[in-house]
Design goal:
The complex is a heterodimer of chains A (about 260) and B (about 60). In chain A, helix 1 crosses helix 3 and helix 4 runs antiparallel to helix 6. Chain A is mainly alpha-helical. The termini of chain A are far apart. Chain B has one domain. The two termini of chain B are about 15 Å apart. The chains are: A mainly alpha (about 260), B mainly alpha (about 60). At the A-B interface, helix 6 and helix 7 of A face helix 1 and helix 2 of B.
Chain lengths: ~260, ~60
């Protein structure tokens, strides 16, 4: 679909092709921008938290304080609240997950980087699969395989005949819908966010190249782009939080004896 | 704690509704294709929705 606005050349709206980034070096096929961004995020997170915790003082400096703020948020705000007495075992995973998703999401609006690996469907699903394995493994280890599966499939206190109706729904929820929606939610939010910013900013640029009337409209498109950048920042933080929250909730569900 | 329970309920409810519709709706659709009927998909959707609502009530409603 081409919008003929300026008369000469048409405006090509951003689409899926904008996510299809070519390899950085022609002969190394797997080395694309998202891969580099993920590596960069790991380096940045490591440096930040090592620096923040290296000289831990009783009265923290700015760096240590900000590091501890994030750690405290995940540990006490998420893990301790949801997982109960056994929460410390899961803090490393939840903390890694939260910071990793958060930093990669925010890369989407960092100038020059401006792309989130999470808008490529493979990255969120890799994380969702890890969470999937973790919560099923924890449940099977804690309750025993048979007891765990029975707890999922057969809700107590229901007439036996009803199980024909309910058991498939329960199994589909725990084994298919949960990991599927977990990955999809993060992916779709990051994908749509990037696309939204592309529409307004590329659109504004295109309007600027048009006739005088269109030039006058273009600042509004840019203003909208800036406004949506702040909105996207909120969405990025929220999605990182939700991904971690749901992981913690799923683990808590596996730890509990029955649901 | 209260907010987290609500978040749990919210996502679990969405999950149940989705799987109820998908599983029983899908089963109804396949039965329709197999038996050359046209109403079983609807029956499946209704069954799935009913089952999902029942599960939600079992889990959150009877406390």
């Amino acid at each position: 679909m081409h919008l003929k606005l300026s008369g000469e050349e048409g405006f090509t709206p951003p689409g899926v092709k904008d996510f299809d980034l070519p390899p950085i070096f022609e002969n190394i096929e797997w080395l694309t921008k998202p891969v580099l961004l993920v590596a960069l995020s790991v380096v940045l997170i490591s440096i930040f938290f090592i620096a923040a915790s290296r000289k831990a003082l009783v009265v923290p400096g700015k760096l240590q304080f900000s590091g501890e703020l994030v750690y405290d948020f995940v540990r006490n705000g998420l893990a301790k609240d949801i997982l109960g007495p056994e929460f410390m075992r899961f803090v490393p995973y939840l903390f890694t997950l939260f910071t990793f998703v958060l930093v990669n999401n925010v890369f989407s609006i960092v100038p020059l980087l401006q792309f989130s690996a999470m808008s490529h469907v493979g990255f969120p699903y890799a994380l969702a699969i890890i969470t999937y394995l973790v919560y099923h493994f924890v449940g099977m280890k804690k309750q025993g395989v048979g007891h765990y599966l029975k707890g999922i499939a057969f809700m107590p206190g229901v007439p036996k005949a009803i199980y024909v109706l309910l058991t498939p729904i329960e199994i589909a929820t725990f084994f298919i819908v949960r990991p599927f929606t977990l990955g999809l939610r993060l992916f779709a939010n990051m994908f749509a966010g990037h696309l939204l910013l592309l529409v307004f900013i590329l659109g504004g640029e295109h309007l600027l190249a048009g006739v005088i009337g269109l030039k006058l409209v273009s600042p509004f498109a840019f203003a909208m782009g800036i406004l949506l950048t702040f909105f996207e920042f909120m969405v990025q933080c929220l999605q990182a939080y939700i991904f971690t929250l749901l992981t913690a909730l799923y683990i808590a569900g596996s730890l509990a004896d029955e649901h | 704690m209260a907010a987290n329970r609500e978040a749990d309920a919210l996502w679990t409810i969405v999950g149940y509704m989705l799987s109820g519709l998908l599983f029983w709706g899908g089963a109804g659709y396949l039965a329709d294709r197999y038996l050359n009927t046209s109403y079983l998909t609807l029956v499946g959707f209704l069954l799935g929705m009913g089952g999902a609502l029942y599960l939600i009530w079992l889990r959150f409603g009877r406390e």
